[in-house]
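Lecture notes, unit on protein representations.

Consider one protein chain, 618 amino acids long.
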Amino acid sequence: MPYPRLAATGRFFGRLWWLLDGSRRVVLNLIFLVIVVWLVVALLRGGAAPLGERTALVLSLRGPLVEQRSATARDTALAQVGAGRAPVSTQLRDVLTVLDAAGRDDSIHTVLLVLDEFRGAGLPALREVAGALGRFRATGKKVVAWGSNYDQRQYFLAAHADEVLMHPMGVLFVQGLGGHRNYYREALDRVGVTVNLVRAGSYKSAGEIYVADGPSPESVESSRLLYDGLWATYTEGVEKARRLPPGTLMKLIEDLPQRLAATGGDAARLVLEHKLVDGLKTRDELRDLMIERGAASADGKTFRQVAFDAYLARQVPRLTGDAVGVVVAEGGIVDGPAPAGTVGGLSTAELIRQARLDEHIKAIVLRVNSPGGSPYGSELIRRELELTRKAGKPVVVSMGDIAASGGYWISMAADEVVADPATVTGSIGVFALLPRADRALEKLGVHAEGVTTTWLVGAGDPRLPLDPRFNAVLQTHIQHVYGQFTGLVARARQRSQAEVDGVAQGRVWTGAQALERGLVDTLGGIDVALQSAARRAKLEGPPRVLYIEPDRSRFDRVLGLIGSTVAGVAADELEARLPGLPVPAAARAAEQEMGWLLRQADGNNPFASLAHCLCSPY
C-alpha cells in the first residue's frame, strides 16, 4: 500500500515548502524594507544635492525651546499638512547639532538668525544656544540676526550675533525679570473654601498663593536674591556680547521715558542710537544685503540658503560604537508612567534601567528640566541612578532651566552635578495642600453625613472640615519626608544634615549661588556634562551621544529615521487674538492654578506630599 506513504511524503514536503516559502517572503520583505530605508536616507541625507558655496543657514526658531518634544512625529506631521494640531517647539539638541555642523561645513558662509516665531526658553537654554553661536563665530564665519521686533528672550540670542538688525518700525522690549502672582485667599474665603497648607521649610512658598493675600517675607527675600542673580547673568551676557559698558541696560530702562521722548517716540531709533542694534532693515532690504554678502539663489530671486529643518535632516548621527546615554527628565514628576513632557517615576526609571543594561552605553547623563512633583516618583528615578553607579557606570546630572525640589531630588545619585549659572535649583522642601469646601456646600444647602468605623475615614474628603488630629498626623509625615530629602542631600553632597538644612528650607537658588553653597559641583552646559561622562567612562575622542527615549510607533520611528523635523500649528487661539496682554495671561494663570488646586482635593490619598517648587525659570 504505497499510496498512504506517498500522501504523507507529499504533506511533509508541502509543509516544508510552505515554511521555506514563508521564510523566503519574510527575508525578501526585510531586504526590500532595508533598500527602501537606505534609498530614503540617501535621498534626504547623503544623496541630497550638495550645498553651493556661500550658502546661508537660515536659523528660524519656532515655538519654545525644549529638551524633548511632547508631541509625536505623527502629530506634528499631520499638523504640517493641516490634518491635525500639535504644539510647535524646537529641540535644544537640534539647534546645537546644526550650529556645530555648520561651523565645520565649508559650504555654510553665514547664519541668519530669524526670531519672530521664537517663543523663548529659560536663560540656561538661551545660554546654550548663545554658546553654540559663539563656537560658530570662532570659525571665522558671521552670524546676522534679524527681527521685526525683539522681546527679552529673543534679544538675548540676537545680541550674540555679529550684527543685529531690526525692522524700522520694530520695538526692542527688555523689561527685567520677576512678576506678580495671583493670591486667592480672599476669593476662596468668599466662596467658602478653606485651604490648609502643611509644609516643611520656612522658605517653601509653594502653596502660599492659596492661603495668603500676598507673599511672605521669606518668599520675598528668596525671590529677590534669585531674580537679582538671574538678571545680573542676563545683563552681563548681553552687555558683554554687544561690547556695552556695564549697567547700560539698567540705565536705559530707568531713563526710558525721557530717552524715548527725545527720539519723538521712535523706539527703533532709540535702540539704534544706544547700540542695542546695528541697523534697521525691512525684509526686502535684508534679502538684498544677504545676496550682496553671499550669493544669489539659482532663480536670482533671493539669496542662496538652506533652512534649519533641511540642514538638520542632512546630519547623520553615529550609529555604532560605545556611547554616552542621555535620559531627559523634563516637566512635572508623577509616580507612574508618563509621556514626553512629564517625568514619570516608573517610565523614566525604566529608561535609566535600559541604559544601564545596554552594554554599548558606558555612562549616563540625566538632563533635568523639572520643577519637581511627587517625592515617590522622584525617589524611583534617583534609586535607578544609584543602581547604575553601583553597576560601575558613571552618572552625570546636567541641569537645564530648572532643577528644583523633586528636580533636585532626582539629581542626588550622580558622580557630578553640572548646572548653568542661571539654573533655578534647590527648593529642598515638602508640602501638602488640603482644600476644604464644607462652608461652600453649607451655603448651597448641601450636607455630608455618614457612618464610619474610625475617624480616619474621610480624612481627605474635601466636603468635611479638617480634623485637627489628621492635620497633626500630616505635619508629622511631611516633616519625615523632608528629613528623608535632606538626608539624601547630605549623603550625596557629603555634608551634615544640619548643614544641608541651612541651605534647604525650601529656598531656591541660581546655579551660581548653588555652587557657592555646595549644592552642585560644576557650572556649565550639557556639553560639559557629556565631556565629563565620557572622561569618567574612559571613552576616547568625542563621544557618541545616544538619547534614551520611550519606544515610539513604527510611523514615528520611520519619520525619525528619515530626519523629519516637521513642526505643528502655532499655539492657542487666545494668545493669537490677544498677544502679550497681561489680563489674559493672568486669567490663564488663574485657570491653571485653580485647576491644580482642585486636583489636590482628591481624597483617595490624603497623605500625598509634594516636592514641587511651583516656580518658573523665566
